[in-house]
């Protein structure tokens, strides 16, 4: 094979290697992430100075399309208000939950690396359970 004939072959091989690398980096090599926080609110443990309860999840990866947030609150008694913040401190979701009406919501948001925070504003009648789960999608 002549020198002129080998350069096109080398160019095709190098192009295939570069395209394969780009495919791996941007499409095939997506990261998986899953983490959760859960807890219980008990009226007998209520103290006025701790009426704001915080739960955090540290999202340490963000190389995926969307962050799927599953939020469940089930109260046996009382009520609470909640707020969910992204790592930049921006409010993502807020609302109020009352006993007898189980709350379950799923959000799809842009993945942002850092500490996500849920704040629960409870009162002396608040009795129930919460689950906050985040995973890549």
Textual characterization of the structure:
- It is a single chain.
- The protein has one helix and eight strands.
- Strands 1-8-3-6 form a four-stranded antiparallel beta sheet, with no helix packed on it. It has a four-stranded antiparallel beta sheet with strand order 2-7-4-5, with no helix packed on it.
- The chain is rod-shaped and about 85 Å long.
- It has two domains: 1-29; 33-134, Sandwich (Jelly Rolls), CATH 2.60.120.380.
- With 137 residues, the protein is α+β, with helices and mostly antiparallel strands.
- The chain has one helix spanning 3-28, and strands spanning 34-41, 52-59, 67-77, 79-85, 91-98, 103-109, 114-122, 127-136.
Q: Between the first and last Cα atoms, what is the distance in angstroms?
A: 50 Å
The number of distinct structural domains comes to 2
Helix percent reads: 10-25%
Q: What is the correct CATH architecture of the largest domain?
A: Sandwich
Indicate the proportion of strand residues. Answer: over 45%
């Amino acid at each position: 094979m002549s020198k002129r004939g080998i350069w096109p072959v080398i160019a095709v091989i190098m192009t295939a290697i570069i395209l394969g690398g780009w495919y791996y980096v941007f499409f095939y090599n997506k990261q998986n992430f899953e983490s959760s926080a859960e807890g219980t609110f008990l009226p007998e443990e209520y103290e006025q100075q701790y009426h704001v309860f915080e739960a955090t999840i540290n999202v340490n990866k963000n190389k995926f399309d969307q962050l799927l947030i599953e939020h469940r609150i089930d109260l046996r008694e009382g009520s609470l208000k909640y707020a969910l913040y992204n790592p930049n401190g921006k409010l993502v979701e807020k609302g109020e939950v009352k006993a007898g009406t189980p709350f379950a919501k799923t959000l799809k948001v842009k993945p942002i690396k850092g500490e996500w925070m849920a704040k629960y504003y409870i009162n002396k009648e608040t009795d129930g359970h919460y689950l906050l789960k985040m995973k890549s999608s």
